[in-house]
Amino acid sequence: MPNITLNNISKRYTPDHPPAVDQVSMEIEDGAFMCVLGPSGCGKSTILRMIAGLENLTDGEIAVAGKSLDHVRKGIFVPPEKRHIGLVFQSYALWPHMTVARNIEFGLKLQKMPAQERKQRVADMIAMLKIEGLEDRYPAQLSGGQQQRVALARTLAMNPGVLLLDEPLSNLDAALRLSMRAELTRLHKEFGTTIVFVTHDQWEAMTLATKIAVMNKGTLQQIGTPDDIYERPANRFVAEFIGNPPINMLPVTSSVAQHLINISGFSIPSEASTDQAMLGLRPEGLQLSTDASGKGFPVVISDIMPTGGAWIIELQANAVTSENESFSLVYTTQTPPLWRKGEHVFLRAAPHAMHLFSKDGERQSLSINSKTAAFAEMKTPNLCKSKTEDIL
Ligand SMILES: Nc1ncnc2c1ncn2[C@@H]1O[C@H](COP(=O)(O)OP(=O)(O)OP(=O)(O)O)[C@@H](O)[C@H]1O
Fold first, then answer.
1. Which Pfam families would you find in this protein's record (predicted)?
2. Residues with beta carbon inside 6 Å of ligand 1?
3. Residue 388: its pLDDT value, please?
């Protein structure tokens, strides 16, 4: 299946409301596992429905291999049944009066596939999705996870070149979600199907996707690999939406931010305005030490929260700064902490964990400060050193 191109697509449901999708462009490459990620109401499902042909575009074009399926200005619209695209919704929409086997077979019958071939295809799907023994049950006699598998089997039986999944795991418990995630990855690898997956769950997106498209209020914020999105967020929204616990944000003019930038070998570029600029610090990229000679910023441990194999540690900067500043930061570690609540420690940040954002939320580069860079090189672990360039 060739690439799918979204060319400036927009959708406005009602004239007196802002568009649900506003001039979104992206290229979904053949064999990609694309996750469309964003908060509730940002336009994710609308994008999926437009690709499937279930929703008309207000403007723009959707093309496959350069051939328009939808082109508002040229008046082109290919109906859903002619797009060869499989769609699985959050609600599985199985036919309640048909058994599992009949549900899977239904679309093949419509395609007029010969009976023998149909039987074989149904058996293959049942084996692949591990639902053997359930063939003669009705949907009401299945668990949520089993219904989910049947819905996937029914869609995959049609051998779609593109599979659109709208929060298909949202009704499953944690264990089932995990096994379905593994199954989706396996299906993607085995079939090479192009998958477009809508979710508001960042962890799901980070673990499944080859590419993530982050949306907010109908607009595309960033598109890239999970690493791109996490390590080089294009703007403040993306930086704050991705990451758990969320990234710390400090005014760049605060003494903590200034100190961390400086000792990490960076400086604010001379052309950048510091007015309302913010420094983002990933919690897992902070470093704590009791060694005052390490030139870290003094903070107090205000809370330690174990989360099973990892610890969330809250740090308070105000107790130790003479200025009238009050900042709390979150630090995470997978090593059992050596400190106690109330203890004074020194804070540093790995260069790759620092992200600068302008007043309007756009990513900005930090400059390397030649005077302090040597110090940072010396003190920064190898992992961080290799990332130093990424921040620029
Ligand atoms: N049929 C409709 N008529 C009018 N407005 C709609 C319609 N469908 C969706 N919307 C609005 O369009 C916006 C985007 O909706 P959409 O369902 O695409 O968001 P979403 O990101 O998938 O949300 P969620 O994660 O909650 O499912 C929302 O503000 C929603 O209220």
1. ABC_tran, TOBE_2
2. 13-14, 20, 38, 40-46, 200
3. 32
